[in-house]
Design goal:
The protein is of the alpha/beta class. The chain is globular and about 70 Å long. It binds ligand MGD (2 copies), iron/sulfur cluster and molybdenum atom. Iron/sulfur cluster binds at residues 9, 11-12, 14-16, 43-44, 46-47, 178, 185.
Length: 725
Amino acid sequence: MAQHALSTCTLCEAACGIVVTHHEGQVERIVGDEKDPQSLGYICPKAIALADLHHDPDRLRRPLVRANRDEPFREATWAEALRLAGEQLANVQHTHGRDALAVYYGNPVAHNLGLLTHGLAFTRALRTRNLYSASSADQFPQMLASERMYGHFGLIPVPDIDRTQYLLVIGANPIVSNGSIMTAPDMRRRIQDLRARGGRLVVLDPRRTETAELADEHHFVRPGTDAFVLASMLHVLVQEGRVRLGPLGPITDGVHAVGRALLPFSPDATASQTGLSAEVVTRLARDFASQSSSVAYGRLGLCTQEHGTLASWLLQLLNLFAGRLDAVGGAMFTKPAFDLLGLLERVGVGQGFDRWRTRVRGLREIAGESPVATLADEIETPGRGQVRALLTIAGNPVLSAPNGQRLDRALRGLDFVVCVDSYLNETTRHANVILPPVSQLERGHYDLALQVFAVRNGAKYSPPVLQKSPGSLHDWEILTHLSAWLLLPKHTPESLRTATLSAALKVTPEHILDAGLRAGPYKLTLDSLRKNPHGIDLGALTPRLPSILGTPRKRIRAAPPRCLSELSRLAVTVHDLEPASDALLLVGRRHLRSNNSWLHNSHRLVKGPERCVLLVHPEDALRRGITDKSLATVKSRVGEVRVRCALTDEIMKGVVSLPHGWGHTHAGLRMGVAQAHAGVSLNDLTDDLQLDRLSGTAGFSAVAVVVSPASQQDPPVLPSEAPHE
Ligand SMILES: Nc1nc2c(c(=O)[nH]1)N[C@H]1C(S)=C(S)[C@@H](COP(=O)(O)OP(=O)(O)OC[C@H]3O[C@@H](n4cnc5c(=O)[nH]c(N)nc54)[C@H](O)[C@@H]3O)O[C@H]1N2
Ligand SMILES: Nc1nc2c(c(=O)[nH]1)N[C@H]1C(S)=C(S)[C@@H](COP(=O)(O)OP(=O)(O)OC[C@H]3O[C@@H](n4cnc5c(=O)[nH]c(N)nc54)[C@H](O)[C@@H]3O)O[C@H]1N2
Ligand code: SF4
Ligand SMILES: [Mo]
């Protein structure tokens, strides 16, 4: 008899409720759970990939090992693979110091209960400065702006999308991404509801995106210039006396200092930089301030650029100055049932800024991490503290970090590489040991991280849909095994190591979840969640300031000194428009049926028209002799790819767009479907020297590229050759 299991999709931040029908270990159907209080039955096409991933013959079920990376992989027992990985990584730290081991953890960590309860603390306990994550290719600018203003990296307010009358979206495409740092399944319905109640959606983006198609207004903005737009909007609010701090007035410092720093940014002064006319910017500012409620929301396009932290801070200021922070229909903070931020603070995860600088390039430490854009430097540059070994956990930096080809080459020079991952992909092909965890359907789930950013408070636990197969391990179990090698002293007797390990393995993610729920504001228990398998709705967001502020005396810092000095620096450049050149500005994009670099092995998701194509404006194409569907060569400072073009006026003139996460062309991969739909990697073009100035986050937006027709004689441009064949 087929069984129906209630669960949660862990593929993106929307965290939709699903019903999985399965029979004798075979998944037959995945549909939306209509009784899930947040998603109400909505799912996107990616949900079926949970079944495809589980049944994928290419998914690794057993560890792969090789002592020497010139050899092919062979399957090994867990005991052999864990010992080899643990001993060798520990050996590197003992011989060359803690920093000689680099760790990179990727995006799926945020969607994995055990990696959150066990993994984050483990990565910090290794005490290496060479700790890297996808955050420095993503949201660090927003986290840093929050830390500076509100005293905690995690205090990022979310748009109260279901109650606002005016949503301003800058550099995000929630119709495709399904919302990010905004857990809100079914964005289309929410946006339709907003418009049905007379509200407005306004989008600023260099592409007329799927979200922009639903908007009342879309304006093209020149990539990398959002800080100018936001500074001008704030300038209008200040000059026209529209600043209304409301109840936050008495607890906010620095408003006048900001006002003075904004003086050079009149809408007239910034128009030539941004491509937005003074009239439009002035009107947007007035509209934003005069609606009954409004909220400005920005995401990846706003963060991953030279002025990412500055723009993120200015976006927060826009909400604050218009009286929208912590207000219904504005930018609000959640009250999660499990206080993840409090827990992280207690175990020392995710704190600190600029306590040290990176060895080679002197980039600032952020939240205990180094920016991933400098990982290759730390591997390639000899000297004390040089990286000799790498542990990756749920990450694929060869495709996701800037200048991926250089990183790919650098990884070959390492002494030892261990990857906790289910696939033999672009990054893990460099491993000595690959440790594959159970599939998404074989583990229990609670959205520890995403509930912190949900547009309604809620709580939901989903037990594993399928029993994990005998002899397989959870991610957290793999890391606990490694910690018995890496965190115990070198000469720990074997019996003590074994005893410590078996004690540690008794503390499961579910134990920690239960304890955290009991200590949380709603006094829930794991048991109470098990009795409500669709999830519990804990109500709309409520004002939370100042009690949750992490700043001294619980005050809002409107003018953090480093942000203010960046603004002054920007003011100097306000009139310098770059001279016209042949270069176009490259930006990225996402697709509903794809997720970063790792869902391309599902045939159901990749079939259909070719998706990894370069969007070019027809006028830019004409000037270069490029025609629709023809091949073009795209060159940046760091690399070159050959890709098919699609001509469209949905992209701003002077800008081109390529999706990231493709480029499954390397030798030695074991992902048959993905290899047959390889595409090219955007990050073979992005530049590891182009960073957000304050946080060191990769500056993926506005990479200067030269695009020209590819002649038929050109040899195909392939990423670097196979490493060890
Ligand atoms: N140019 C450009 N680059 C970008 C971006 C962009 O927009 N443009 N986006 C950036 C962003 S926002 C992000 S978040 C990063 C993502 O970058 P990464 O996190 O480095 O890469 P992913 O593509 O998410 O790869 C996830 C890896 O984890 C594995 N995996 C999946 N689930 C699990 C699991 O449960 N356990 C384990 N152990 N492994 C698992 C997959 O097989 C895959 O190898 O990319 C960034 N890079
Ligand atoms: N289907 C799908 N969903 C996903 C993912 C996925 O790969 N596929 N990835 C998940 C992850 S890891 C993340 S972080 C989120 C990201 O979520 P979003 O930020 O909503 O997604 P993106 O599509 O990267 O949107 C970035 C937008 O910024 C625009 N942009 C680029 N440069 C600039 C600029 O300088 N200024 C402005 N104003 N706009 C600019 C781009 O054109 C693009 O429309 O999505 C998540 N959800
Ligand atoms: S939007 Fe799609 S991928 Fe994201 S959680 Fe929902 S079903 Fe899964
Ligand atoms: Mo991300």
